[in-house]
Amino acid sequence: MAHSKKKTAARAAFEGKSNLTVEDAIKLVKSQATAKFDETVEIALNLGVDPRHADQMVRGVVTLPAGTGKDVRVAVFARGPKADEAKAAGADIVGAEDLMETIQSGKIEFDRCIATPDMMPLVGRLGKILGPRNLMPNPKVGTVTMDVKSAVEAAKGGEVQFKAEKAGVVHAGIGKVSFDEDKLIQNLRAFVDAVSRAKPAGAKGTYMKKVSISSTMGPGVSVDVVSATAN
């Protein structure tokens, strides 16, 4: 019963509030995060694109200035010295055919997948498994590379990938509710800026329609787009 009261109280705090400044939205989300764990602050951007068209696909990568607060598990497809380099850089799983078989068996114990270019014929067989989970290595976001060390360190150090889903929505975690407000504001603006810079050639009309944030267990609140894009 106590849980439902809490939930009602949180929803009441959000009642009638929309189009807030970034500062007010962050303050509200932080104040109403009452879960027993450190909730993630999540952002969702509604974009004026139809990702089914190649010239309207939005994807990219951004390093959040204050990090994500999340322990990112990294898998690397590599052989020989590059496999050693990945392990030394802190990769959680490193392999080749053995890693492919593990993934094919349904065991996916990682949040980011990196591959050296020579491994892509092997990784390509996993497209139907990794693609829908947004885990497929891609040279456009730096996850198909010979510089394995930098890619692993970036993934571990606050780098976030984004990709528009069917309805033109991009979402990501931008930190934890335990973060200082200033850090969350920095991360939010860095993320919005990166999505803004990733505007595709085929986008017509209003590109950034709506920005909203929430905590993992809390309601969402819309953020004034101008405030979100101000630096």
Describe this structure as you would to a colleague:
The protein is an alpha/beta fold and 231 residues long. It folds into two domains: 16-68 and 160-229, Ribulose 1,5 Bisphosphate Carboxylase/Oxygenase (2-Layer Sandwich), CATH 3.30.190; 74-156, Rossmann fold (3-Layer(aba) Sandwich), CATH 3.40.50.790. Helices cover 35% and strands 21% of the residues. It contains nine helices and nine strands. The chain is globular. The chain starts with a helix and ends with a helix. Mean pLDDT is 92; it is low at 1-5.
Beta strand %: 15-25%
Query: Element order, helices and strands?
Result: HHEEEHEHEHHHEEHEEH
Strand order of the largest sheet: 7-1-8-9
Class from secondary-structure proportions:
alpha/beta
Query: What does the overall shape look like?
Result: globular
Q: Count the DSSP helices.
A: 9
**Weakly predicted, low-confidence segments:** 1-5
Number of strands: 9
Give the total of domains: 2
Query: Mean of residue pLDDT?
Result: 92
Function: Binds directly to 23S rRNA. The L1 stalk is quite mobile in the ribosome, and is involved in E site tRNA release.
Family: Belongs to the universal ribosomal protein uL1 family.
Keywords: Repressor, Ribonucleoprotein, Ribosomal protein, RNA-binding, rRNA-binding, Translation regulation, tRNA-binding
Subunit structure: Part of the 50S ribosomal subunit.
Short description:
The protein has 231 residues and is of the alpha/beta class.
